[in-house]
Structures are given as structure tokens and as C-alpha cells.
TrEMBL record:
Name recorded for this polypeptide: Luciferase-like protein
Domain of life: Bacteria
Entries under SUPFAM superfamilies matching the protein: Bacterial luciferase-like
Keywords, ordered alphabetically: Plasmid
Length: 384
């Protein structure tokens, strides 16, 4: 089993967040970068498989200050030796998909394959609405109930078509695409160049560009591993089963998870994809490791404040919580593993709103007391 760390991107402690506008304080962002660097180095030494982050923008309050997936993953790669950087993920309704395909391929080369990438739809209306890549696209969090179905459908359409464009760009030397929301090259083609004919591809006999290609191609063949960021619905599971992504599921309800695993496998089979149970999806939750019951209650309360203050108003339920001693957490993981058969575990931790000493202790104890029950280190030092 592989173990991945996931940060939410919090810039400050609780009192600093409550003071207001923490996201715009330079000294807090400098501390944030230094702390993330140290977490990455520690995780690399301990054998974690990847250090991951989501994408969010305009977070002046300081709760999720991960505003450039590629740039941040390069930062992770610069401060690690064998561990992968994980983008979880690009929020596709806010991006040109060809540009995303090329950026990921470039980053894959810079990290020499130490990259894994996920894609998400975007729940935070303030920034998704402001940065939408296509007219009318909005976040999955509706302004009102009346707008929910139409808004969600458009977001999903753009998301799915963007993913298909990215995969096409990775798979082909040159390609064209004409869909409902994207067309590459644009209608009528683009002006060509003599070198396109003698040293490239995609231009017709009249000197019009009819196909395009990205450069470079991905370092990993055919591309980095694709994950689906935080799947919670069967519709999303069906989509990933068709498209070949691995959903990340942070749910405690094992009956729901079991149904999700079965649904994915059935849908994949209908699309001529036979997927082993361990490759269907990844599981995980929020790590709160301590032998002290009073401290466990304090940790839960602190994480609950963080979640209630920021995520609950967006309709984001608190994820599964892995709380207790090493034995208790190992039992939680073991029960889930016996039921679901996953081979990857994603662990959120208290980056930002908890002090580094607390987080470092939890990460070290998990790597030394829990992970070895499910994995051994390979030649590179990764827990597998």
C-alpha cells in the first residue's frame, strides 16, 4: 500500500485566521512556504509516496492558499528526492485544457516522472465563477436551489470535455477537436508557416493549420497517473470508470464505499475496461494520531472548527476521520482495506492550522507505527 499526504493549504493558525485577511500577509505566506518545505522533506525521508494539494484562488482569508497547481508541485519536487508531487487537482472548468495538457507534460519532465495528477470540478463559487474558462460556467455550489441542476450540468459538461481534450493531446502527435464547448484549432483553422510543412505536422496543402500538438510530450508514458479528486457521487464514479481515472474517496461509510467500488467496476466493464479491485479507487481521511484521549478530543475540536468555519457552508461534509492511537488507526484502516481492497491511502493532516511539532509527531508515528503493518519500503525508500 502507498501512503499520500494531502494538505489543504492553510496559511495560519486559528488566531491568525480569525484576525482577518491572513491570506494577504507576506510574513504568513513566507512561514507557510518554509513549513511546507519542511513537511515535504520529512515526508520524503519517512517514505510517503506523494505530497498533494488542491487548486484554489482568491483565498484572502487564508484557508486554502494553493493558487497554482503546477508551480506548487514544482516546489514540492525541488525539496524532495524520490517522493512524487500530487496535483489534486486542476479545476478544469477554469482552464484551457490544451494549456493544462502541455503544462502537466512540462512539469512531468521537470520532475522526471515524479508527478501524479488529479482533476476536479470546483465547488468554491467566488473563484470558479471569476475564472471560468467558458461562458456561463460556475461552481458546483449553486446560488440557489433553482439553479442547481442547470449549473451542475454545465460544469460537468465542460469538465468532462476538457478531460477528453487533455487525454487526446497526450495521446496524439497532432489532433483536432470539435465539441460542444471547445474547438481546437478554432473554426476555419489558423495561419500556417512553411516550417510546419517541412518539420512539423498539422497544416494542410493550403497553408492552414488543421491540427495542433503539444510540446513536450509527457515524460511518463503515456502520461502521469490520473486521479479523480474526492468522488462522492455515482455519476462521478461512472465518469471516472469510463475515462480511466482513479477516484479518491474520503468517506467513513463502508457500505457506501463498497457500493461505489462495485459501481466503478461494473461501469468500467461495460466500457471494456477490466479493473482490479485495488485499482478502482483510493481511500483515506483526516489523520489525528495520539495515545492521549484528551489530546484526541482537542485535535478533533480544532479540526472541527476549521471544517465548520470554512467548508460546511460550501456543503462540504467533513471527511472520514482517522483518530486515536496507532493501534486504533491501524484497525480503522484494516477494516476498510478488508472490505474495499484499496492499495493507496490519502491522509489529510493539520498543515497550517496546527503547529509543525504536532504535525511532525503524527507523520512520524504513522510512518513508524501504522504504515509498516500494511507496507514495506522498496529500494528507493517508498512505503509500498
Amino acid at each position: 500500500m502507498k501512503f499520500h499526504l494531502m494538505q489543504t493549504g492553510v496559511i495560519g493558525r486559528r488566531h491568525e485566521l480569525e484576525a482577518g485577511m491572513a491570506g494577504q500577509r507576506p510574513e504568513l505566506y513566507q512561514r507557510f512556504l518554509a513549513e511546507v518545505r519542511d513537511y515535504v522533506r520529512l515526508a520524503d525521508d519517512l517514505g510517503y509516496a506523494a505530497y498533494c494539494q488542491p487548486e484554489h484562488h482568491l483565498q484572502i482569508e487564508g484557508f486554502e492558499i494553493n493558487n497554482h497547481p503546477g508551480m506548487f508541485s514544482l516546489y514540492v519536487g525541488l525539496h524532495s528526492k524520490r517522493m512524487k508531487a500530487g496535483i489534486m487537482g486542476y479545476t478544469l472548468p477554469t482552464h484551457n485544457p490544451v494549456r493544462v495538457a502541455e503544462e502537466i507534460a512540462t512539469l512531468d519532465h521537470m520532475l522526471q516522472g515524479r508527478l501524479q495528477v488529479g482533476f476536479t470540478r470546483g465547488y468554491h463559487a467566488r473563484w470558479v465563477d471569476s475564472m471560468a474558462a467558458r461562458p456561463g460556467v460556475s461552481a458546483t455550489t449553486p446560488v440557489n436551489a433553482k439553479a442547481r441542476d442547470e449549473q451542475d450540468a454545465l460544469n460537468r459538461e465542460v469538465f468532462e470535455e476538457s478531460l477528453q481534450v487533455i487525454k487526446k493531446a497526450w495521446a496524439s502527435d497532432v489532433f483536432s477537436h470539435k465539441g460542444k464547448h471547445w474547438q481546437f484549432p478554432p473554426e476555419g483553422g489558423s495561419a500556417g508557416h512553411p516550417a510546419y510543412a517541412s518539420m512539423g505536422k498539422g497544416m494542410d496543402a493550403d497553408g492552414i493549420v488543421r491540427q495542433i500538438g503539444i510540446a513536450p510530450k509527457c515524460y511518463q508514458s503515456p502520461h502521469p497517473k490520473i486521479y479523480g479528486g474526492f468522488a462522492g457521487s455515482m455519476t462521478t464514479v461512472d465518469m471516472w470508470a469510463r475515462e480511466g481515472g482513479k477516484p479518491i474517496v474520503l468517506a467513513a461509510d463502508l457500505d457506501f464505499c463498497d457500493a461505489l467500488w462495485n459501481r466503478y467496476a461494473d461501469t468500467a466493464r461495460k466500457h471494456e475496461r477490466e479493473v482490479a479491485r485495488e485499482d478502482v479507487a483510493a481511500w483515506g481521511g483526516f489523520l489525528m494520531l495520539t495515545d492521549d484521549k484528551d489530546k484526541a478530543r482537542q485535535l478533533l475540536a480544532e479540526h472541527q472548527w476549521f471544517w465548520d468555519k470554512w467548508f460546511i457552508p460550501f456543503g462540504q461534509k467533513m471527511p472520514n476521520v482517522l483518530i486515536g492511537s496507532a493501534d486504533e488507526i491501524a484497525d480503522q484502516i484494516g477494516r476498510a482495506h478488508d472490505r474495499l481492497g484499496f492499495n493507496e491511502l490519502f491522509l489529510m493532516f493539520g498543515q497550517g492550522h496546527l503547529n509543525p511539532d504536532q504535525n511532525n509527531e503524527e507523520l512520524e508515528k504513522f510512518a513508524s507505527l501504522v504504515a509498516p503493518r500494511f507496507a514495506t519500503k522498496d529500494a528507493e525508500g517508498t512505503l509500498v
